[in-house]
C-alpha cells in the first residue's frame, strides 16, 4: 500500500522508458496517410526587392504537387504576430512568405509541396527568383547612424522601440560618488539550437472543418489562438498538439510563419503536410537570443557601497519582431539591481532593426544580460577600489531579514539569503586555498583566475498583469472509475520532466501510487486551457494548479467518505491513502473505492455532482526570485589563449525542490549553455548580412570534452508566492554561469592589465590581448 | 526519378529488402522506409551524432551513409537494444542517472556508448567524454550522461559473459 513521501525524492523519470527505447514520437516521427512534404525556399540576400519568381520549372520536377509564393497566399494568412506591448513599438508586417522584399538571409519566399522530401528539395533549386539587392545594415550601432539604409520605409529610421526606466537621484549619486566605473559590454547573439529542429505536421478535415497541427512548440494553447487568428478559422476548430519536443530553450516559445503556412497548405490542398526544419534553416530562421550592446556606469563609495547604475543599451532586434521580441530587453532593465541594494538605477533601451533574423527569448531571456552587466561591474568596481570581489558583494547584499526586498526597478524579491549561498560556495570551492595557489603560480608565469557570480533571477512567469498573454496556469486532476489518476496540465514540458514531478505532487496529496498516475499535456483538445512552458514557470505555476486541483479532489473524496461513514467531515482522517473515522483506522476507505462510488453515483450526498475530478487555475501574486552563487576557477595559457576550467562550483537556491535529480539536470544543462556563451558561441553576420555561422561546424556548441564536472550544492529558501514553495530552476544555471566564467578569465589575465574582454572568450582573442600587452611592455611585465 | 537499386539489410536481427534511390541516406531509409524512427536527425551533416547507429559492428552517423553502402550489412538501432521488456544496461544507466532530458540526442548517445563499451569495459571519465565528443547534447551538460555510461560499464562488467557482453540480439 502507499505511500512514502515523494516530493523531494530522487524519483527517476517516468518519461524515460519511451525515450531510451527509441519509441517516442517527435513531430517528424508522425506519419499520416497521403502526407505531403514541404520544403521552403529562403532568401540568400539580407535585403533585396523581389522582382519576380518563376516556379514553372519546379512544378515539372516529378512528384511535385504544388509551389506557393507570397503572392499566391496574399492576405489569406495573417502576419506573424507580436504579443509584447510598448507604446513606441513599430511593427513591420511580416508575411508568412515574403512577396515584395526580403529583409534577412533565410526569410521564406516560396514553398514546394511534393510527395517526398527529396523531390521537394530538388524542386527548390528550380525556382528562379529575380532579386534586386538593396543596401544592407547588419550592425545595430550602425543601423542608428544617419547614413544607414532604412529597412522599413514606413518609418524614418531603424528604431524599433524605446523603453526606459529611471529610479532614484542618478545625477546626484554620480556626482557625489567616490568612484565611477564605466564599461562597454557586448552580449553577442546566440542560437538556441534545440537538438530537434522545428517541425510541423498539419491535417485538415474539410467535413468537420477541423484543423489539427502538430508542432514542436512550447506553447500549444497560445499557438492555437494565434493560428486561428492568422488562418481566420474559428478557434474551436483548431487543435494544436505538441508531441514529444526535442528541446526548446525559448526558441519554440513563439508563433512562426511556417506554422501558419502549413495550416494553410493543409486546408488548401486537402492533404496532410509536413515540414521539418533543416539545421541550416534552424540557424537562419529560428529566433536568436541576446544581441545587446551597452554602456554601463556604476557609482560607488570608497568602501564598496554601490550607489547607482546606469545602462544605455542597443538591442539588436533583427528585421522583424517575433512573439516576444520587444519584451526581452525590459526584463534586462527590471533585473539591473541584481542581488544588491542599489538605490538609483536607470536603463535606456533602443531596439534597432537590422537585416538579420529576429532576436527573442533564449534561455534566460533578458536576465542573463542583466546578471552579466551587474556581476561584471561588481568585479570591475572591486578591482578599481582594490577590494576582494567577495567583500564588495557581501557589502551590498540585502540581509535575509530585509525580504521581501523592493528594488529600485520596482520588483519585490520574494525571499532570499544571498550570504548563505555565497558562504557555502566559497567553502565548497576552497576560495582562500585557490587565492594562495593563484599567487604562487603567477610567480611561475602561470595564470589562474577565480570568478564569482552571485545572481538573482526573476521567474515563475508570472502575475497576468505583467505578462503579454496571461500569467496563470491550468491544471486538472481526474480520478477514473478504476481509481487511476489522470493529471491534465496546461504547461508543455519538453525535457523538464513534469510527467514525473507533477505525479510526485499528486501522489503525495492523494496518497496513491505514482504508477497509477498519468500526466497529459500538450494537446489543446484534451487539456482545456493553458499558457505553456517558459520562464521557469511550469512547476511553480503549473505545479501549483495541479496541486490545487488535487486538493479539491481530496475535499470531494472526503465529503463522499463522510457520507458513506455517516460521519462528520471533521471526524475524518486521511492517512496511507485511506479515509477513516477518527479512532477507527481499521475501517478505512481508499480513493479507489471512493472513485467508484463517485461514478456509480448511487450513494452520494444530496446535490453532489457525480464523478471525482477538479480543475484549478493558479494565478500567482508575484514572480519568484531564485538565486545562488557560482564560482569558477580557470587557468589561461597566454601562449595559446586556451582557457581550462579547473573547478566549477554552483550553489543554487530554487526554493523547495520537488525532484533533486531534475533540478540537478536543469542546473548542469544550464551551466553548459552559459559556458557556451562565455567561451564559444556567437551568431555572426558579416556586413552584407550573410550568416557566417550557418551550420554546427561554424556555430560552436559545447561538447562533452569542453565541459567540466560541476560541483553542485543547494540552499533551500521557499517562496511565499505559491504553496509548493518552489521558485523555478530552468534558467538559473545559464544566468549564473556566464559572468562567473568571464570574471574568472579576466581575473586570470589581470597581470596583463586586462579589465574586460567581450564574449565569446575564444583563444584567439585572449592570445591577441596577451601578445599586445607583451609587445607594449617589452622589457618587463606588470 | 532516378533508377532504383535493391538493398538487403539486417536491422536489429530482422532481414529487410527494398528498392531505393541510390542517393537515399541510410537515416532516411531507417526512418521513412523501415519505420524505425528512434534514430534522429539533428543536423544531416555529421556533426551532432543524433543519427548514430551501429553498422557492421562500428558506430556510424547514418546521415552520412548511403543506404546502398549498407547493402548486405548488419545494423543495430536504438530499437534493437532492449530484449523485450528488459532494458539494455546502457539504457538502464541513462534512466537511473537521469542521462537525458528532451531525449532527442539519447539514441545516438546510447549507440556511441555502445561502441565505447565494446572497446573498453572500464573507461575513465576522460575517455567517456572523448568517446561521446561526436554527440551533441544541448540539455544535460553531459554530466549525467557520463554518470550513465559509468553505471552501464559497471553493470556490464558484472554481467560479462565471454566477449559477447554487449550483443543485444
Ligand atoms: S544528423 Fe547525423 S550527425 Fe547530425
Ligand atoms: S537530452 Fe536534449 S539534447 Fe540531449
Describe the 3D structure.
The complex is a heterodimer of chains A (782) and B (169). Chain A has 782 residues and is α+β, with helices and mostly antiparallel strands. Chain A has four domains: 31-134 and 201-273, Aldehyde Oxidoreductase, domain 3, CATH 3.90.1170.50; 139-192 and 287-366, Aldehyde Oxidoreductase, domain 4 (2-Layer Sandwich), CATH 3.30.365; 415-457 and 624-782, Aldehyde oxidase/xanthine dehydrogenase, molybdopterin binding domain (Aldehyde Oxidoreductase, domain 4, 2-Layer Sandwich), CATH 3.30.365.10; 462-618, 2-Layer Sandwich (Aldehyde Oxidoreductase, domain 4), CATH 3.30.365. Helix content of chain A is 29%, strand content 24%. Chain A contains 20 helices and 28 strands. In chain A, the strands form seven sheets. In chain A, strands 3-5-1-12-9-10-11 form a seven-stranded mixed beta sheet, with helices on both faces. In chain A, strands 7-15-14-13-8 form a five-stranded mixed beta sheet, sandwiched between helices. In chain A, strands 18-26-27-28 form a four-stranded mixed beta sheet, with helices on both faces. The longest helix of chain A has 28 residues, at 538-565. Chain B is of the alpha+beta class and 169 residues long. Chain B has two domains: 5-80, Ubiquitin-like (UB roll), CATH 3.10.20; 89-160, DNA polymerase, domain 1, CATH 1.10.150. Chain B has five helices and five strands. In chain B, strands 2-1-5-3-4 form a five-stranded mixed beta sheet, sandwiched between helices. In chain B, strand 1 (5-11) and strand 2 form a beta hairpin. Classes of the chains: A alpha+beta (782), B alpha+beta (169). Chains A and B meet through helix 1 and helix 18 of A and helix 1, helix 2, helix 3, helix 4 and helix 5 of B. Bound molecules: FE2/S2 (inorganic) cluster (2 copies).
